[in-house]
Queue: 2 jobs
Job 1
Amino acid sequence: MNLSPHFTLREFTDSDTAERRRIDNSLPEHLLPVAISTARMAERIRHHLSFLKKSDVRMQITSGYRSPSLNEIIGSKPTSDHIKMLALDFKAPDFGTPLDICRALVPVMDELGIGQLIHEHTWVHVSARSPDNSINKVITANGRGFVPGIREA
C-alpha cells in the first residue's frame, strides 16, 4: 500500500528484528492517517534534499513504526514517537552522510514539518512531534547520550 508517491506502508513497518523475533509489527488501523501524514513529511524532506542536490535523492527508511513489543526489545523508550508512527529513521546516501542531511534540514525544519531532528551518526531521526523540552529539538547522539545541536561524531 502506498502512503505517498515515494513511500509504502511496508517501508514503514519492515523490521529485521521483528522478523527474527517473530513479532507482529503491523500498523494498527487507527494509526494509518498518522502514517500518511508522516509519509507526507518524508516527501517534503525528500523533495528538499533533491532540490539541494539538483537530482533525485532516494530515502532509505531504516525504522518507521515500531509496535510496543518491538520498541521494548530494541531498548527504546516507551515514549518513542515510533510507537505513534510520528517518527522515521532514514539514510539518503544519494545526498550525503547523516551529518550532511541534518545540516541541510536544520534551517527548514518548520516548513518541512519536522518537530525533532536527531543526528544518530549512521542515520537521521525525524519526528513530526516537537518534544516538550525545546533543547531536545535538534540534538546529536554521542554514544553517552545526547547533546544539543548537530555535531560531528
Job 2
Amino acid sequence: MLVARGVGPVDLAVAAGEVVALLGPSLTGKTTLMNVLAGWSRPASGTVTWLGSDVVPPWSTLAVVPQDIALIEELTVGENISLGHGGRTSVPPDHPVVARLDVGHLWTRGGYEISVGERQRTMVARALVGEPAILLADEPVAHQDALRAEVVLALLRERADAGAAVVVATREPEIAALADRTLEL
C-alpha cells in the first residue's frame, strides 16, 4: 500500500491491486506529486509511507516510469531494462514484457539510438520486469500510438491485478477512465 497524508491538499491511499489515476491538465502538480510519491522530493507538509514504512523502498519494490525520458544513454536497451532487476540479473530480450512492448529487437542499441516512443517503452519494461509492489507511471503513453498505448495500459492493469499498487498520472480522461479511482488535480 502507498499512503500520502496531508501532502499539500492531497490525501491518497492506494491499495495493493488498485490503479489510481491522477488526472489534470499541465501544471496542476501531477509530476510534483509523483516525485513525492517516488521519494525523489520531500513534501512541504504531510507524510508518505510505502508498505507501512516511511523509508523509500528499493527499486525491486517501487518502480517509476518518469515523464521525462530517463534512460542511461551509455547503456544498451537490454542493460537499461535489466536495471529493473537491480542490474544484477540480465533480462532476456524474449522476456514476455519486453516482447509485448516490442523492444527486444533493440536489445543491443544504445538509449540514444532509438526513438522517443521506443525509449518510453524501454522505461516501462524496466519498471515492470522487476514485478514491483508499487508502480508509479507519469504520462506513460504520451509518446505512443493508440495500439502501443493499449499494450502499456494493459500491462499496468496486469501489474495491479498481480497485487501491485499502481498510480498513473495523466491529462487524458480516456486513460484515467481505465483506473479503479481517479483523483482530479
